[in-house]
Design a protein that fits this description.
With 124 residues, the chain is an alpha+beta fold. Strands 2-1-3-4 form a 4-stranded antiparallel beta sheet, with no helix packed on it. Strand 1 and strand 2 form a beta hairpin.
Length: 124
C-alpha cells in the first residue's frame, strides 16, 4: 500500500520496515507485505502520519509550450509540472490539449475514471 501510493518505491518500503520505521495501529510492522485496511488503520512512517489516497485528481492550467503527456524524451510535459509532493507513479493527463494551447487538464492515476469521462458513449 505504501509503494502503491507513489511516494515510496517497494525497495524503500522494505528498507523502512526492516529498520522498524513503519507502525500500523501502534504496532511495528515486521513484513512489507502485511495486509491492512488503509481506510481504518493508523499508519506512521518515520513517526509521521501517512495519509493513504487510492487515487489522485489534479486540476492543472496547462501553459503554452507544454505537452499533454506523461513523458516525452525531449519536451516538458504536464506531469513534469506536478510538485513532488503530489507526484505519483502512473499519473497521466485525462484528455489532451495541443502543445500551443492553454487551459484545463485533469491529471489522475485513476484509469477507470479517466476512461469513463473520455469515452464518447458517455457524452462527457
Amino acid at each position: 500500500m505504501l509503494a502503491q501510493s507513489g511516494s515510496l518505491s517497494r525497495k524503500e518500503v522494505k528498507t523502512l520496515v526492516r529498520k522498524g520505521c513503519v507502525l500500523v495501529d501502534g504496532q511495528q510492522v515486521t513484513a512489507a507485505d502485511m495486509k491492512i485496511d488503509p481506510e481504518t488503520a493508523s499508519i506512521l512512517v518515520n513517526g509521521e502520519p501517512f495519509q493513504y489516497k487510492r487515487f489522485v485528481y489534479i486540476m492543472l492550467n496547462k501553459p503554452e509550450g507544454v505537452v499533454s503527456a506523461s513523458n516525452s524524451g525531449r519536451e516538458k510535459t504536464v506531469v513534469d509540472l506536478v510538485p513532488d509532493t503530489l507526484r505519483r507513479n502512473g499519473l497521466f493527463p485525462a484528455g489532451r490539449l495541443d502543445k500551443d494551447t492553454t487551459g484545463f487538464v485533469l491529471l489522475t492515476d485513476d484509469g477507470a475514471f479517466a476512461h469513463r469521462i473520455l469515452s464518447p458513449k458517455n457524452h462527457i
